Amino acid sequence: MMADFVTPRHSAVMERLRRRIELFRQHHNTCENRYVGATQERLELERPNTINLHQRLMQNKAKRASKHRQPQPSIDQDAQRASGGGAESGGTAAEQSRNTTRAADCHLDPLV
User: Fold this and answer.
1) Chain centroid to CA 103
2) Which end of the chain offers a freer environment for a tag, N or C, measured as fewer CB atoms within 10 Å?
């Protein structure tokens, strides 16, 4: 007799739980669909801002690089300096000054 009473109650509880789980599942699916749609829309709205920020970053990097970059000497100038013909063969004023200063420093050094 006790078993007859417990069985309907158990099945009723299980049925209520199944209905609640199904309602949660439906709610989750509708929320997920809204979230996916909103995510795509938000990404499309943010994309132009992201592109603008990326362009500004690249421009700032280029500006900083050009400020700190010194003109690179050509291979011919390197060869002339290596052979000792930099100041004599008409290098720039800065190169001549630097070479003259180096030469003067060498003559002042008692170990040379």
Assistant:
1) 47
2) N
